[in-house]
Amino acid sequence: MKNTDVLPAAVLRRKAVVYVRQSTQTQVQNNLESQRRQYELVEEARRRGFVHIEVIDDDLGRSASGMVARPGFDRLVAWLCAGEVGAVLCFDASRLARNGRDWHHLLELCGLVEARVIDLDGVYDPCRPNDRLLLGMKGSISEFELGVLRARMFEAARAKAQRGELRISVPIGYVWHREIGLGFDPDLRLQEVIRLIFARFRKLGSARQVMISLTADQVHFPRASDGKKMVHFDWTPIRYRNVISVLKNPFYAGVYVYGKSEKRTALVEGRLRKSYGHGRPPEQWEVMLKDHHEAYIDWAEFERNQKQLARNAYGKVGGVKSGRGGRALLAGVLCCARCGRRLTVAYTGRGAGQPVYRCDRPNMQLAQPRCFTFGGRRPDEAIARELLRAVEPMAIEAALQAERRHMQVQAEQRRIVELELQQARYEAALAERRYAACDPDHRLIAAQLEKSWEAALQRVRACEQRLEAADRMQSTVPRPDLGRLAQDLAAAWDAPGVSMRTRQQLLRVLVKEIIADVDDATREVVLTIHWRGGQHSQLRVTKPRTGEHSCSTPDEALAVMRSMAGRWSDEHIAASLNRMGLPTGQGNTWNAQRVSSLRRVHGIRAYRSAEKDGQWLTMSEAAAKLGVTNHRIRHLIKAGLLPAEQVVPRAPYQIRASALLDQTIIEAIARTHSPCRTQAENQISMFSST
Question: In order of start, what are the domains of the chain with their CATH numbers?
Fold first, then answer.
């Protein structure tokens, strides 16, 4: 031992600290020889003369780059500050620190308390300039070595990625094959689930709606049960993050991507912290190789999906918002013709309220006058009529396509259940083989295997019941008559099962946006429709006057009431309106009291029997005058013998009193034993007169 290696008695009375560290958990598990050699420094400390020896191995599996916290190193620094450490033993300088900040801070503390730094090469005293210079060089070399290793590793990985050969982690649905490289996962059930997600998104246009639809169909999604190996999966109920991860991953479009996320460094509590997984825009991806492997969708569809997801982000600028339901058909589609901003929707009135479109952003943000406000009921109805008129020529073709889509969805649902049943049967057979291969006397293992087998059989029975229920539903539930609906689009649009979200989605398929303005001179809402495909059309909707509520009586009902009021009673008018299917403004049926109230409001003259001059009779009055039943009068009218008039279809008949004096009517009434029929002029009798 050299004289410089002899330690003073004051240093030996303190404790020696053996610092043990490895950078990653993989090194801790695999590099056991390096770990053993570091622990052997305890014997080196005893050989140097130390009695009290402490081993700090809290930092096993932690990097010394300064980016992560090291509780063991912090404890060593605290002991040095307290003057309890006589020497720090390490395998080499890189074990203590890989960055200059921690290394020089440690040397400064050792110099202040006259502690030594000991490695396999010797003993160093930080108080001596030569030893301090040598230790500083070792720390710099350790830091430089880490940078070189990182640069070599990243450059090699990047070069391999540019060729598409770097076997990075791939999403569910792909595996790295030994011969062909990246390809589809051979599990057909897994492939079908991923394809189903893309198919539902094409139909619904919303990731959340896809998740809700698949949850209603009891579709499960695989979750890796073996960590990053991605070989074994557990099938769990699908979640929103599963859907969004599939829709946003470019690998499903056959694109090999490397460097689509970045790391960021921030100073937190005096120490640098790195965070990973921050996404980059596509133009900043380091490597992007199209048509690299088999794809579930093409690149064009992937780009459309990203645009749709961006439009669905509520509150973002640009693009028409997706249909979110509610009671306003044009929510998110209307733009102000004066300021260019999108119109917002508010609900006024009691209960559910009526939708109102308004442009009040200038008023709220800039304290400027509000552009305009108008009610939503009439514009919604006008746009709906225009929409149905536009799709009417394609109604039959759309109905046939919808029927094919309906059958395709049913086939997809059955296919998913069949694949799940196949998986369950395989797992049940595997559990049975495991139970059969177990020694029956080993009850601890046999009991668990029997329980697993029973659970697998229960899953098989559940899948079989789902498949039987689906078949039973398809056989018992009648298929929708979509062809008949195509002939009456208004009925299909107002059908009870059609939600506002569905109507909004149909509107957004055909309409790009609608520019709205209010013509104050004519009190009209001007709607300029920009159809997809470049066509434009304009609608003008009358704006309600001040005080005019949205529950006013339809104009058709008022016209019928005006035409019948002078000749018919309120009871007859109410019955006619109900037969014609014209409700009140509140959506109720008519009765005499409601007809009377509405006549007084609109100044319509009432029916009064005393004012009748006797020229017109009702069916009951004509029957009473002739002494027959109403059925006989109705039969004469249908036969064309008795002329009668109706104000509107389905209204009561009006019969002139003079028509009852016609000889033909009198003879028809007089015949009681033979049917009341008319004799055609050219008809030949079947029997002779003799």
Answer: 3-159 (3.40.50.1390), 174-255+290-312 (3.90.1750.20), 321-511 (no CATH), 555-611 (no CATH), 616-670 (1.10.1660.10)
